[in-house]
Design a protein that fits this description.
single chain; alpha/beta; Rossmann fold; Elongation Factor Tu (Ef-tu), domain 3; six-stranded antiparallel beta barrel; 10 helices; 30% helix; elongated; nucleotidyltransferase; Riboflavin biosynthesis protein; Riboflavin_kinase_bac/euk; EC 2.7.7.2
């Protein structure tokens, strides 16, 4: 897959092949997004054209919000591109979302981007908007096209009698409801990071853990204990993850993410790894002593093994 980064207003489009282009921010590349992208791929294949996606980075709220705030993604850009590539798309155009780009009128967005990219067909969700303050709606795209490209609008994709949306998925993850989040995503929610040194207390308890420094762009689930899969070196292992502050021992440390990897015994400090989140078991608990904590960890391990045995 070819990836092209465009910075408004000066950019050059080298590939002038006719294209079917899917439009969207696509954070999470969830089932709703997949419907749009797969439709674009299908139309492109039927017409013998290149399939393309036009997306943006960073999230518009980073630029448009008056309050400076960090934005945490379901799929930071690199992972979003990986998932789009898995859907068979030929080209992805990543527009740098800037204040100047945000001022484009809907008509200028069509002229300066879709026409310049040689779009022969545009595909987007029913609620996609474009141009300054999202003034352009998909029903109006045909009039802006002026016969130069076709337009397909993908209807609302639903689950649990609601629209599948990144906002819904984000809320589920923040509540620890990974079962719902994963069903809406169409795959297990995943974060990536580096294995770092911790205080090694888990070893003394019989539960050595991999402490993870997660890439800061990711959305992290709420505090608690989870069934996860830990992916390292191309292999996947069942595990139980803890997100918390080790309140039994400390109250002043930073939040940690630790994984007890089942049936695993290898030094992996400094290695890159991934965590797939599957199921929330319980909230973080403070114990009066080590004995109570160890008994609970044994139960957590049993619950984790039982979960994956299903």
């Amino acid at each position: 897959m070819e990836t092209c980064f465009l910075h408004h207003p000066e950019f050059t489009i080298e590939n002038q092949d006719p294209k079917t282009i899917a439009l969207g921010f696509f954070d999470g590349v969830h089932l709703g997004h997949q419907a749009v992208i797969k439709m674009a791929k299908q139309i492109a294949d039927e017409n013998g054209e290149k399939s393309a996606v036009l997306t943006f980075d960073p999230h518009p709220s980073v630029v448009l919000s008056k309050a400076r705030k960090a934005v945490h993604y379901l799929t930071p850009l690199d992972e979003k591109l990986e998932k789009i590539e898995q859907l068979g798309i030929d080209i992805v155009y990543v527009v740098r979302f800037t204040a100047a780009f945000a001022e484009l009128s809907p008509e200028r967005f069509v002229e300066d981007y879709l026409i310049q990219l040689n779009a022969h067909h545009i595909v987007a969700g029913f609620d996609y908007s474009y141009g300054k303050k999202g003034a352009g709606k998909m029903e109006e795209m045909v009039s802006y096209a002026k016969g130069r490209f076709d337009v397909t609008i993908v209807n609302k994709q639903e689950a649990f009698d609601e629209k599948i949306s990144s906002t819904k998925i984000r809320g589920a993850i923040e509540e620890g409801d990974l079962d719902t989040a994963n069903e809406l995503l169409g795959y297990p929610y995943k974060v990536k990071g580096t294995v770092i040194h911790g205080d090694k207390r888990g070893r003394t308890l019989g539960f050595p853990t991999a402490n993870m420094q997660i890439d800061e762009d990711y959305l992290i689930p709420k505090l608690g204990i989870y069934a996860v899969r830990f992916i390292i070196g191309g292999k996947s292992y069942a595990g139980m993850a803890s997100i918390g502050y080790n309140v039994t021992f400390k109250t002043d440390q930073e939040r940690s993410i630790e994984v007890f990897i089942l049936d695993f015994d290898r030094e992996i400090y400094g290695e890159q790894a991934e965590i797939e989140w599957y199921h929330f078991f319980r909230s973080e608990m403070k114990f009066n002593g080590v004995e109570g904590l160890v008994e609970q960890l044994k139960q957590d391990e049993a619950d984790t093994r039982a979960y994956f045995a299903q």
